[in-house]
Design brief:
The chain is an alpha+beta fold. The protein has a single domain, classed as Jelly Rolls (Sandwich), CATH 2.60.120.10. The protein is 16% helix and 32% strand. The chain is globular. The protein binds 2,5-dihydroxybenzoic acid.
Length: 347
Amino acid sequence: MVSQADPGYDVIHQLCAAPLWRYYGNLFTAEPRGDAVPFLWRYAELRPHLLHFAEELSMEEAERRVLMLVNPGMPDPPATVATLYAGIQVIMPGETAQAHRHTANAFRFVIEGNGAHTTVDGERVTMRPGDLLLTPGWRWHDHHHRGEGPMIWLDALDYPLVNALGAGFFELHGQRSQKTTMPDDLSTRQFTHGHLVPAWSMDRTVSSPVGNYPWEQTRRAFESIADDAEGSATDGVILEYTNPWTGGPVLPTMACRVQRLRPGFHGEAVRRTSSSIHHVIRGTGAVVADGKRLDWHDKDVFALPGWTTRELINTSGTEDAIVFSYSNEPVLRALGMYREESVERQG
Ligand code: GTQ
């Protein structure tokens, strides 16, 4: 029997080798065991600080003026859950966030404000509250605000995954603003007519070609199935934003969904290997995550790491709750690692 103090341990350590038998249970866990924990960020707490930095920090001092939502279990490098990041960005009237590009895929979900747009590879894309705007990897993008009052949105990126894969590249454009090279909102207008898509374009990329999935469409979708759709036992009436070329997720690494929880909805408990980040568009409710209850309100953000047992609850007896969310489910599915199972309710 080998002794704990066997001098061989020190020697192999010096040789940059290690005894697998001392690590085995941590490397090959019986079930997923990540660093991230379920967590909730209250919009009402963060907003004043965002506005403080909007006053104090110029756009020349910050590449982007963003409060990152850092999971207490993933401080360094900061991430929100495994493979995913969320941040809250603010831009003030007259400001420009300069043009750059990165291999990380990004999208924005607009929280408040009007009169801003983002330019993505030469196309101006208008931003309104509730809109989902895509910036797939390596597209040039710069943000502009020509309206009044603060413009605030949720940023989502997959840089934790990109960096883990050693595939991170970043470039400044050189000019603060890109020149526009096509009509405003063209990609959105071309794909806005349901099943009719432009057949002349052969550029069928892995990412959705749509610049903006407008709130107006989302609202209409919910309205037209208002009381007919039963929805899912875990998630209520949940809709997925799709890539019109494939019917699949909008980005290869991130799937975006929006759900309506009817008054009093109490979802069945489930756990999934995918990690997700949720933004409350409207309503009041709770999520019971691994037995712990997190209460949410309008515009809050909460993170659910993979394999967290969770149930969603709308605590209002009269109002719908509408929740936007994104997950790394496409990555897990592509790699054959997606699993889900139903669990006994805890809340
Ligand atoms: O707006 O391009 O939250 O590059 C993080 C990195 C936003 C952006 C973020 C970014 C951006």
